[in-house]
Amino acid sequence: MSIRLAPSLLSADFSRLAEEVAEVEWGGAELLHLDIMDGHFVPNFTFGPPVVRAIASHSKIALDAHLMVTNPDDLIDDLIAAPVARIAVHVEVCNHLQRTLENIRAGGVEAGIAINPASALALIEDALPWTDFVLIMSVNPGFGGQDFIPETLDRISRLRQMAGKRPLDIAVDGGVCLENAASLANAGATTLIAGSAIFGVDDRASAITDLRLSATVGGVR
Fold it and tell me: What are the binding positions for a divalent metal cation in this chain (predicted)?
């Protein structure tokens, strides 16, 4: 699988979201990552379905929703209607993970599992048949601009082995930058979610291009 870049809107200027979306679209991003936080599962609160609908109306690229919320099932129908292309729910809060993943897929949306840095990969192994992608957190969720946790590389490699021949998309979120993009790709990541590494520089197109080159030329994939 080729490497995809997904700018994380959490690091964008919220006062000019339409312009920020247009800049990363023009820069060649394949996905737009949306961190939806409830102030309960994580300390911060960001936005909900009404803002996602507004973003969708200005975006030509697919929306990738990451639900950092205690009750993800309450938001799924509204996000499918927004529309988004992908929804990731946290294994730590889903009481009936298989049912939640099936409900997402039934809406014509890719279903993903997000997992925190200290949560065992074994928690998601039996759910992989109903999973289109796994989002490995390489920082603890809830805040942008954190330092990458290096042990994530081993977790990505072990998840890739766990998936076997299944064409599983492995996304990684947190501290992604030029310095680790190649290592992430070599470990088996296929979607790189980057916030400050893209929105923290003036030329978003160059930032996206440089990350992609680092991951594909610097890596072996």
Answer: 33, 35, 66, 173
Mean pLDDT of the chain: 93
**What pLDDT is recorded for position 192?**
97
DSSP of 38-54, one letter per residue? BSSSSS-B---HHHHHH
200 is in an annotated binding site: no
Tell me which of 38, 132, 169, 173 is the catalytic residue. 173
Residue 120 maps to a domain: yes
Tell me whether residue 189 is in a domain: yes
Q: Is 144 annotated as a binding residue?
A: yes
Q: Is 142 annotated as a binding residue?
A: yes
> Can you give the pLDDT at residue 145?
65
Active site residue 147: no
Query: Would the annotation count 174 as a binding residue?
Result: yes
Do residues 192 and 5 make contact, with C-beta atoms less than 8 angstroms apart? yes
Question: Mean pLDDT over residues 170-191, rounded?
Answer: 95
Determine which one of 13, 35, 132, 147 is catalytic. Answer: 35
Answer whether residue 139 is part of any domain.
yes
Query: Strand, coil or helix: what is 11?
Result: helix
Query: Is pLDDT of 69 > 80?
Result: yes
Calculate mean pLDDT across residues 142-151.
80
Q: Give φ, ψ of 69 to 5 degrees.
A: -135, 160
Instruction: State yes or no: pLDDT of 56 exceeds 70.
Output: yes
Task: Look at residue 51 and tell me whether its pLDDT is greater than 60.
Answer: yes
CATH of the domain at 132: 3.20.20.70
210 is catalytic: no
Furthest CA-CA distance within the chain: 44
Per the structure, the complete domain to which residue 77 belongs is given by: 4-216
- What's the domain count of the chain? 1
Residue 133 annotated as part of some ligand binding site:
no
